[in-house]
Amino acid sequence: MSSPPARLELSESEPPPRASIGAYALEKWKFDTVHSNVSFSVRHLMISRVHGSFKTWSGSLETDDADPANSKVQIGIDVASIDTKEPQRDEHLRSADFFDAANHPNITFESASVQYVDTEHFKVSGNLTIRGVSKPVTLDAEYFGTPEGPVGRRARRFFRQDVD
Question: What are phi and psi of 18, to 5 degrees?
Answer without folding.
Answer: -65, 135
